[in-house]
Specification:
Ubiquitin-like (UB roll); six-stranded mixed sheet; 22% strand; single chain; five-stranded parallel sheet; 3 domains; binds zinc ion; Rossmann fold; 523 residues; Metallo-beta-lactamase, Chain A; alpha/beta
């Protein structure tokens, strides 16, 4: 199994913390799952392991850093005992059960990422992982195009699955090291002022360049945000991050330093409401208050859907008198994914016999598929697949082969999967409110005991709507009495009549469709 990620919820999934893939196919085939092999340590590739391991006990293969990052969630879930971690080195080739897997270095926005080559009886299947072709990476570890070329000429690559994230973008993604150049200049131009830089906690090369710019401008570095502290510690221990002794200081000790010697690296570059940066922007961070003259660098680009939250944080930071530098004003961020020029390069080096675009929105995969065809992959050997689609590679080539369950589970804290119905209800409640009516009936007499009680939240402002609520009570009473006069005695049936009558009145009078909750009590 290659990677096991999570998605983050869309704004139209109220109360959902994360979105998991449906594991039912894997559970049913548990005896056939020999291992999970990781391309890299991002949460959309490793975050689901903490849930998968509840049902399956499998070893996990990956680079030391990928495994270290993946363990964060697994340990938090108390499942570390159920996993065996197997560290693999760059270019290592491993026999894993019936599979023969080769781990090929690629550059991405987290160090130690791999493309995976599966040597199978049907030939080589290459999965690019998330990648870009950075020719000047911060750690000098480039995407191993030479090895991919050798695989293509020695064995031939029968199938390539390629990262489609930036398939709509022409040209080449700039090197990560260009961010370091901008960062150094920004740091020198901000002399005498405190600097706070927010970036992804797993982006160790970004952290490295911030640390280097800090040292270059005579500053000490403190981390803020739990995952930032944890990941910096992990990366230092693994030798992936190089911080000389005496540079790192505790965030609680920075007040003893002059402003011009302070650099804080923080989480929250996506405007997440409870993150260190958001709390700083609203003056609620106990560790650090943003003051007039501070410089805040947001070294990330908002993931689609997060633009609004990031915009609000930038606005609040201005309100506190900070100067804010972001990817819209300075080149303080580059993507970790390949653009069209790089995707074409990989296609021309790998020369795959067939191609499946992966990783991206549907439109990105459509663009990547047409790019592959333009690079000479035969049209009938390019398959555009969706979650759950099964494909088969055999002597005749690549073709579709049915599907397996591939839906989503919506995880809400400890409640677990909340399902589509609950989400639909939450949306209705959020957008339209709720009207509840309690009707007490005497089934023997076939009459109501007292008038119906109506309560509402989020529908109409109650004091102004007393007449409306009175009318609603009468309409429900009439409908339930009429139903009983027709012989209805079942409380479910009476509920249905109450709901229908109330729903119609609410719709007619307010042109709204709040959730209607009728309750019939029997005496
Ligand atoms: Zn990634
Ligand atoms: Zn990814």
């Amino acid at each position: 199994m290659l990677d096991c990620g999570i998605m983050f919820p869309d704004p139209d999934m109220p109360g959902v913390d994360l979105v998991l893939p449906d594991f039912s196919y894997l559970k049913e085939n548990a005896d056939r799952v020999v291992a999970v092999v990781l391309t890299h340590g991002h949460e959309d590739h490793t975050g689901g392991l903490a849930f998968l391991l509840r049902d399956l006990e499998v070893p996990i293969y990956g680079s030391a850093l990928s495994l270290g990052l993946a363990r964060n969630r697994i340990d938090e879930a108390g499942l570390s005992g159920r996993a065996e971690y197997v560290v693999v080195a760059d270019n290592e080739r491993r026999r894993i059960g019936p599979c023969d897997v080769e781990f090929i270095p690629v550059t991405h926005s987290v160090p130690s990422a791999f493309a995976l080559a599966f040597h199978t009886p049907q030939g080589v299947i290459l999965h690019s992982g998330d990648f870009k072709l950075d020719l000047e990476p911060v750690d000098g570890r480039r995407t191993d195009l030479a090895r991919i070329g050798a695989l293509a000429s020695e064995h031939g690559i029968r199938l390539l699955l390629g990262d489609s994230t930036n398939a709509e973008e022409p040209g080449f993604t700039p090197s990560e090291s260009t961010v370091g150049t901008t960062m150094r200049r920004v740091f020198l131009e901000s002399s005498g002022r405190r600097i706070v830089v927010a970036c992804f906690a797993s982006h160790i090369h970004r952290v490295q360049q911030v640390v280097d710019a800090a040292i270059h401008s005579g500053r000490k570095v403190a981390t803020l945000g739990r995952s930032m502290g944890k990941n910096v510690e992990l990366a230092k221990r693994l030798g992936v991050l190089n911080v000389p002794d005496g540079v790192l200081v505790d965030i609680d000790d920075i007040d003893s330093l002059p402003d011009g010697q302070i650099c804080v690296i923080s989480t929250g570059s996506q405007g997440e409401p409870m993150s260190a940066l958001s709390l700083m922007a609203t003056g609620n961070n106990k560790r650090l208050q943003i003051e007039q003259g501070d410089v805040v660098v947001i070294s990330a680009h908002p993931i689609p859907g997060n633009e609004w939250s990031v915009g609000r944080v930038i606005d609040e930071l201005h309100r506190r008198g900070a100067e804010v530098i972001h990817s819209g004003s300075e080149k303080v961020h580059v993507s970790g994914h390949a653009r069209q020029g790089e995707l074409r390069t990989l296609l021309s080096v790998a020369r795959p016999e067939s191609f499946i675009p992966v990783h991206g929105e549907y439109r990105h995969m459509v663009h990547h598929a047409s790019l592959a065809r333009s690079m000479g992959v035969p049209a009938d050997s390019v398959l555009l697949c969706e979650d759950g689609d099964a494909v088969r590679l055999d002597e005749r080539g690549l073709h579709r082969d049915g599907s397996v369950p591939g839906g989503y589970l919506y995880v809400d804290g400890t409640v677990g999967d909340v399902g589509h119905g609950v989400l639909r209800d939450r949306k209705a409640l959020a957008e339209e409110g709720v009207v509840m009516v309690v009707v007490t009936v005497d089934l023997h007499k076939g009459t109501l005991s007292g008038s119906p009680q109506i309560a509402t939240k989020g529908w109409v402002h109650a004091p102004e709507a007393e007449a409306l609520l009175d009318e609603a009570g009468k309409v429900v009473a009439h409908a339930v009495e009429a139903a009983m006069a027709d012989g209805a005695r079942d409380s479910e049936v009476l509920c249905r009549h109450a709901r229908k009558a109330l729903g119609k009145l609410v719709g007619d009078r307010t042109h709204r469709r709040p959730m209607i909750v009728p309750i019939v009590m029997v005496v």
